From TrEMBL:
<dbReference type="InterPro" id="IPR028892">
    <property type="entry name" value="ADE"/>
</dbReference>
<keyword id="KW-0378">Hydrolase</keyword>
<dbReference type="InterPro" id="IPR001365">
    <property type="entry name" value="A_deaminase_dom"/>
</dbReference>
<dbReference type="GO" id="GO:0043103">
    <property type="term" value="P:hypoxanthine salvage"/>
</dbReference>
<keyword id="KW-0546">Nucleotide metabolism</keyword>
<dbReference type="GO" id="GO:0008270">
    <property type="term" value="F:zinc ion binding"/>
</dbReference>
<feature type="binding site">
    <location>
        <position position="196"/>
    </location>
    <ligand>
        <name>Zn(2+)</name>
    </ligand>
</feature>
<feature type="binding site">
    <location>
        <position position="278"/>
    </location>
    <ligand>
        <name>substrate</name>
    </ligand>
</feature>
<feature type="binding site">
    <location>
        <position position="277"/>
    </location>
    <ligand>
        <name>Zn(2+)</name>
    </ligand>
</feature>
<protein>
    <recommendedName>
        <fullName>Adenine deaminase</fullName>
        <ecNumber>3.5.4.2</ecNumber>
    </recommendedName>
</protein>
<keyword id="KW-0862">Zinc</keyword>
<dbReference type="Pfam" id="PF00962">
    <property type="entry name" value="A_deaminase"/>
</dbReference>
<comment type="function">
    <text>Catalyzes the hydrolytic deamination of adenine to hypoxanthine. Plays an important role in the purine salvage pathway and in nitrogen catabolism.</text>
</comment>
<feature type="binding site">
    <location>
        <position position="16"/>
    </location>
    <ligand>
        <name>Zn(2+)</name>
    </ligand>
</feature>
<dbReference type="InterPro" id="IPR006330">
    <property type="entry name" value="Ado/ade_deaminase"/>
</dbReference>
<dbReference type="GO" id="GO:0009117">
    <property type="term" value="P:nucleotide metabolic process"/>
</dbReference>
<dbReference type="GO" id="GO:0006146">
    <property type="term" value="P:adenine catabolic process"/>
</dbReference>
Length: 339
């Protein structure tokens, strides 16, 4: 079996995907018409051509603009459903997705409209596609602490639909310590915590997110290699890193996929996982990310499967569900002659 076929059928788990980042240009146009929102582009092709980024900020500027077409509960449903259909194609069996409430609250859209649409699609995803899921809300780190606290308060009536809180947007200039109090409060409400750290920012952001925000996973974290003490700590604690290879190349965290350190991190024994981040903007979904690794870096099928095992370990589901997913991966490895 060639490696591409192995990847296609490997059961996969996604832990780092911003639902607003799965808005494909075609849907952006459809929703702009449906909701009478004007776009600074004339066609989906023109939108795609604009997706050349110099860094994280140049992407975020376009990404927040795109999210303006999302208004009604059905828009959030349609967006999430389209992503779940792509998960099915890529044999993603479980996904834990991010959303950015502040991007929508700022435009006068109700928290319940956003969560309602996403959650209805996730429920259908379980029923009709057999894909399990969790939902994580992210605080935008370029906004202030007060806004994060307000968002936390607005989330509380929907707590049963949200497993945790995260931290995303511009890492440079907005370190984890800015959100220590709101993360403390989130933990008190029973939310799990994760944070983007060590994507564009230094390794010290990872250390501070671990110590001050009590996170259960690090989103990206690829710059941990700049601190060998931290790397050893991550190995020993099995602290998961949700790495996004295509995103990192698109946003110039690495010059090329050949330079990416994901396989090096895996070989060191870190709990690294593969994720798509903002698949509509960065050139692909889960299988595209796995294929990009396989094409540019020397990696065995066993190592590719290890990314899936790591993601099960890092997921926010109970032990019974973890065992079921691990069994699915192991059965696949036996069936394909890898073990
Ligand atoms: N929001 C969406 N994608 C992001 C990324 N890669 N880093 C920070 N914030 C984001
Ligand atoms: Zn991200």
């Amino acid at each position: 079996m060639d490696q591409q076929s192995f990847i296609q059928n490997l059961p996969k788990i996604e832990l780092h995907m911003h639902i607003e980042g799965s808005l494909e240009p075609e849907m952006m146009f459809e929703l702009s018409k449906r909701n009478n929102i004007s776009l600074p582009f004339h066609s989906p092709e023109e939108v795609r051509k604009a997706y050349e980024f110099d860094d994280l900020q140049s992407f975020l500027d376009i990404y927040y603009q795109g999210a303006n077409v999302l208004i009604h509960e059905k828009d959030f449903y349609d967006l999430t459903w389209a992503y779940l259909l792509r998960c099915k194609q890529d044999n993603v069996i479980h996904t834990e997705i991010f959303f950015d409430p502040q991007t929508h609250l700022e435009r006068g859209i109700d928290f319940g409209v956003v969560v309602g649409g996403i959650d209805r699609a996730l429920t259908d995803g379980k029923k009709k596609l057999g894909i399990s899921s969790q939902l994580i809300m992210c605080f935008l780190r370029h906004l202030d602490e007060e806004s994060a606290f307000e968002t936390l308060a607005q989330s509380l009536p929907y707590k049963d639909k949200i497993i945790g809180v995260g931290l995303d947007s511009s890492e440079l200039g907005h370190p984890p310590e800015k959100f220590q109090r709101v993360f403390d409060e989130s933990l008190k409400h029973g939310y799990k915590t994760v944070a983007h750290a060590g994507e564009e920012g230094p390794a010290s952001n990872i250390t501070n997110a671990l110590v001050l925000l009590n996170i259960s996973r690090i989103d990206h974290g690829v710059r941990c290699v700049e601190d060998s003490v931290l790397v050893n700590q991550l190995i020993e604690s099995r602290m998961p890193l949700t790495v996004c290879p295509l995103s990192n190349v698109k946003l110039k965290v690495f010059e090329s996929m050949e330079q990416h350190n994901i396989v090096e991190l895996l070989k060191k024994g870190l709990c690294v996982t593969v994720n798509s981040d903002d698949p509509a903007y960065f050139g692909g979904y889960m299988n595209d990310n796995f294929n990009a690794i396989a094409r540019s870096l020397y990696v065995t099928n066993e190592q590719l499967a290890q990314f899936s095992f790591n993601a099960v370990e890092a997921s926010f589901v109970d032990d019974i569900h973890k065992t079921e997913m691990k069994t699915q991966i192991t059965d696949y490895l036996v069936q394909s002659g890898v073990i």
